Amino acid sequence: MTEQTAKGNGRSRHIILTSHPSRFGSQALPIEWGATDPLKRGPIVASLSDPEHRNVIGTHSGAYAIYRALAVASGSLQADHRPDLTDTSPVTSIGPHPSWVGADKIVSLDPFGALVGEVYQPLIQQGYDIRPTIAVTQAHIQMPELQEAVQKGRIAEDGKIMKPGGDLVVTKAAIEPVWYLPGVAQRLGITEADLRYALFEQTGGMFPELVTRPDIQVFLPPIGGITVYMLGDLNAITHPDRPLAVRVHDECNGSDVFGSDICTCRPYLVHGIEACIQTAQAGGAGVIVYFRKEGRALGEVTKFLVYNARKRQAGGDRADAYFTRTECVAGVQDVRFQELMPDVLHWLGISRIDRFVSMSDMKYNAITHAGIEIVERVPIPDELVPADAKVEIEAKKAAGYFSGSAGALTAEALARIQGRDLI
Ligand SMILES: [Zn+2]
């Protein structure tokens, strides 16, 4: 591709497509993914303020890059704005851990992403616009279910992990995706060429460099990221003799935020937080990993279409037809690709999880295949499952999800599990 002329803001403008080799990253620093020394690994330069320095495809902020574009287009943001990062450094340091080394354990985030202001300071002083892809802060959180757990004596307000009044003290990290394409392809068992072509084609050709620049191996995809909530003494997360509870949760806005009763997402999330508090109060730590993968990463429009199809199908909403309806609408049951999920656990240096609060066989398999031991799997207690969510939970157990001592239902019993009608 070469150069084109476009019009914008009432004036003629020269557009230089970055797929032109001589116009892209001629002063770019090389990236050696997995190198121990961050300077040898090389910084991720995804900012647009100096195209000559860029050494990756895509840019910062995931999907929010589009809103940044609107701000620039509407004149409220200077296109070449560089962030003032004074006082933005992490409140606590995470890593480096041995799991950061090598090009196979972490392929979908930059382990040095929170440390760029520290480890790349000499390059920043030379004028490289290197931005954090991870931010780490502290907060208090409040959830009404946790107050109930205090009242029933399952957890205590110890004044440290949980303050009087139920404020839970957390350290939280926000993580933007940074994909090392050869590693992502290897994780999914496909060729890098096939991965690049599908990404290029399925984004409507949004990133031409995916196919024109095989030498650029790192891609910042325009997708949602990860939030990690950590409880208790963070040193316990990697300590071999101290217990660790983990829940890996995929976003479900309808349940997590609005309390929808069609699924078990919020009750299970809260149960995971309760397990984290108990484990932290027993001298360990707890980790909740929250992925922006709404509706099994099929999105909320698809999800609501499926809800309608489930409720309106002949015979009503049934556990034995739960996955079929998703397949009819989306063509596939699930696109969360848990193969990439354990990267965040490796970023935290986790090698053993004592209490894994999840019934998902896909999550369990991904974590154990990544070399992380899981000691105990914690299913959601029956009393926390909303009535209308029985369809989902029994369908998942029948499909191979961990079901504890109760086990999965027979096909006949599964067909008898019915949800509510639409209204
Ligand atoms: Zn849900």
UniProtKB/TrEMBL annotation:
Pfam families for this protein: GTP_CH_N (PF12471), GTP_cyclohydro2 (PF00925)
EC number: 3.5.4.25
An MF annotation (GO) of this entry: GTP cyclohydrolase II activity
InterPro entries: GTP_CH_N (IPR022163), GTP_cyclohydro_II (IPR032677), RibA (IPR000926), RibA-like_sf (IPR036144)
UniProt entry tagged with the keyword Nuclease: no
UniProt KW keywords: GTP-binding, Hydrolase, Nucleotide-binding
Residue ranges annotated for the GTP cyclohydrolase II domain, each copy included: 235-379
Coiled coil: none
Broad enzyme group: hydrolase
SUPFAM superfamilies tied to this protein: RibA-like
Annotated ranges, domain GTP cyclohydrolase N-terminal: 14-202
PANTHER family (alphabetical): PTHR47259, URACIL-REGULATED PROTEIN 1 (PTHR47259:SF2)
Xref: NCBIfam families: PRK07198.1 (NF005536)
Protein name stated in the entry: GTP cyclohydrolase II
Organism, as annotated: Almyronema epifaneia S1
Native organism taxonomy: Bacteria, Bacillati, Cyanobacteriota, Cyanophyceae, Nodosilineales
